[in-house]
Sequence to fold (249 residues):
Amino acid sequence: MNGLPPGLRDFDMHAFADRVRRNVVGQLDRRFTGSSDEGRVTATVTALGVLESIDVDILSKRRLDNHSLGEAIATAVRAAEAEAEQAKAAMMDDLLGSLGLPIPRFDAGG
Amino acid sequence: MSGGDGRGGLGGLGGMAFDDVARGLDEAQERVRSLGGLLGAAGAERFTGASADGLVTAEVTGAGALLGVHVSARAMRDLDHVGVGRAAAQAIGEARSAASARLMDTIAELTGQRPPGPEEAAKALADTGDTAERFRGLM
Fold:
């Protein structure tokens, strides 16, 4: 048993299941937002990173030209996705950390 | 080792010749390498999607990362602010669907098996109770 990571030596399945329920299933309903153009363009993504909506304020539509508006939309979407990704990473850190396991890092690229 | 053909004793595995095991491992490694190469190539491709009216387009990488959104001059004239947001979300969704379809094709090509789509995955999850319902809502 000595070769096991610290968290696995005294592994408590029920405590881990509770943690999964709280940290994973409990997070599924969360939404993450990102914004640009001083908060006038916002994007909302689900906990799984699926884009749910993009809201463009009437002022952004009036004040920005078409190229700038496209950029503002992309910026808001990327920011929302980064938020969701960060929350997902924190969740994984917590779960793996509770097991004393090393935390792998994956670069999605792009 | 029983010598010669490498069959039996410690040289074999479940009746397989040592050479067969080594060849199998080589083949598996080659498949993993080519899978990695093809998935990498698919990830480096660019995909575009457009809103239903074609007034807004989006470009993503094969991995789905958003590269840009283009709002046409006509969209600025014909759509209101709500419509532009909706069209942009639609265009991004379409671009990502194209990237995802390409990835599925690549995997199917390599493995001979098609990974489950969102609907099939949701159906499989249905057996796991209410968690599946929540997943479906997010798809």
User: Anything to note?
Assistant: The interface with chain B takes residues 25, 28-29, 41, 46-48, 50-58, 60-61, 65-67, 69-71, 73-74, 77-78, 81, 108-110 of chain A (CB under 8 Å). Chain A has a mean pLDDT of 84. The longest helix of chain A spans residues 66-99. The two ends of chain A are 42 Å apart (CA to CA).
